[in-house]
Design brief:
alpha/beta, 8-stranded mixed β-sheet, elongated
């Protein structure tokens, strides 16, 4: 599947559909969509660029010379200013219109319009420029891409994704036959569900107690491409809760072990491993940017903070997984679990509160974590001493690693992912998709209310969605310059 992928933010999808379908005389209408292109290499996976919607421009007033039910004539003199913007802001041009007559295919007039626009675009900018074309027909998106270097060739698309509270996927080609292992899944959700999963590229960051079973489940559910990212080595104490590992693997990298395990399943997934930490590897960050879905299964605050930024820069679905718990001692000195909870936070670019607003991460936690990294011996001190003498407040006893709880949380994370595509859940009014906790001790499910931070640049003001990365990965010089191919 080396076709490209197109992503529309939910707000852009709504604007386009309202505009295109409300002409007072029922005529065709058009619009411009400016896209940001993500084109970064992942060794072992086919090249598949992502085109992320940034801005909508309605074609109205002097944009249109005339229109009918079946076509409209564009004023080509309006395009040079857009060509200039695309060149200066590193954007790609999208041309969108509707077919009120119900025609689900591109017409000869569409071919002429696309080639005229692309001729001007590649002449003003460069032959490497892309034109993304979308048609709306009966509320369904159809798309294709051309490039100025050879405008006669139609570049296929893998899917068009719309990021609302769910993940809507359009334009997917149905295969003649799916693996027999997916037949029972097909009975539950239908054949299109399995095909949608095959079109997705999913990255899992952290392959420990939650990440390894998530990777295993995603492979078995039929996700087409998997990227496994983790710099950790397997130690013997991990074996009670990880999936796909054995004692023979001790001392080896976790991402590589899980990749080998998934390949041995003999399914049709493409899987690659990057044996590095996400916040220390340009290769890992570039691979992350190419994914449609991210599962955050890391246990460090800095890693979560990075992923919390990435979901907005790269217009991704982000599912963060974590556990918390406390161990106490009874009157005889025996340990017992006071609390043990598993959290799944499902966040989309315009829906849900970010991890900072959920208080899963904050500056104090980041500072405490860095202090402990700089001085590992402090981790063995009493928490009260750390607070009093070292101003470290986040050094509580770590939640115990118990396979039943880590896998239970992993199962809920994958079930949440499947719900984004099939919408099978009926959540009670007191539960939030972006923050669901399973209490394994008291057997209840609840959501925490996020903090009200109106000025949050991530999930309230959406500044990262609008501004893009600039020259550096995630807009941060320490992560290095973005590859020239992008």
């Amino acid at each position: 599947m080396n076709e490209h992928r197109i992503t529309l933010l939910g707000s852009h999808d709504k604007i386009l559909k309202e505009w295109l379908t409300t002409h007072p005389d029922g005529h065709e209408r058009g619009a411009i969509v400016l896209f940001r292109r993500i084109s970064r290499k992942v060794d072992g996976l086919p090249k598949s660029d992502r085109f992320l919607s940034v801005e909508i421009i309605r074609m109205e007033g002097d944009w249109i010379i005339d229109s009918t039910l079946n076509q409209f004539t564009i004023n080509m003199k309006k395009f040079p200013d857009l060509y200039f913007r695309c060149e200066n802001e590193n954007l790609e041009l999208g041309f969108v219109h509707n077919h009120p007559d119900g025609n689900f295919y591109f017409s000869e007039k569409d071919d002429i319009n696309e080639k005229n626009i692309l001729h001007g675009l590649s002449g003003c900018n460069s032959p490497g420029s892309y034109l993304i074309s979308l048609i709306l027909c009966d509320n369904i998106w159809i798309g294709r891409i051309r490039q100025g270097i050879n405008p006669e060739i139609i570049l296929g698309i893998r899917h068009i994704s719309v990021l609302n509270e769910s993940l809507d996927l359009y334009g997917i080609k149905m295969p003649d036959e799916l693996p027999i292992s997916l037949k029972r899944q097909e009975k539950a959700f239908g054949k299109p569900f399995n095909t949608k999963l095959q079109s997705l590229r999913v990255a899992i960051i952290g392959l420990g107690g939650t990440g390894s079973p998530i990777a295993n489940l995603l492979a078995r559910t039929g996700v087409g491409e998997l990227i496994l990212i983790d710099g950790d080595l397997l130690v013997e104490s991990n074996l009670n809760r990880v999936s796909g590992f054995s004692k023979c693997d001790i001392g080896l990298n976790k991402a590589n072990i899980v990749m080998r395990y998934i390949k041995c399943l003999g399914l049709k997934n493409k899987v690659v491993a990057i044996p590095n930490y996400i916040n220390e590897s340009a290769e890992a960050l570039d691979a992350l940017s190419t994914a449609d879905i991210i599962f955050g299964c890391t246990d460090d605050v800095a890693g979560r903070d990075l992923l919390n930024q990435a979901l907005y820069y790269y217009s991704q679905v982000y599912i963060d997984v974590g556990l918390s718990g406390n161990v106490d001692k009874d009157q005889d000195g025996n340990p017992y679990l006071r609390t043990q909870k598993g959290r799944v936070s499902c966040i989309l670019p315009e829906y849900g509160s970010c991890l900072r607003c959920q208080n899963v991460i904050n500056d104090q936690m980041l500072s405490d974590e860095q202090k402990l990294k700089d001085n590992p011996e402090l981790a063995d001190l009493d928490p009260e001493i750390l607070k009093k003498h070292y101003y470290i407040f986040g050094a509580n006893v770590q939640s115990p690693g118990i396979g039943a709880f880590t896998r239970g949380t992993a199962n809920n994370a994958v079930a949440t992912f499947m719900n984004l595509i099939s919408n099978y859940r009926d959540l009670p009014s007191d539960l939030r998709q972006d923050n669901i906790w399973i209490d394994f001790i008291h057997l209840n499910i609840h959501s925490n209310t996020p903090r009200d931070i109106p000025e949050c640049i991530y999930c309230k003001e959406h500044l990262l969605l609008k501004q893009g990365e600039g020259k550096y990965r995630l807009g941060t010089p320490q992560y290095g310059k973005i590859p020239i191919d992008d």
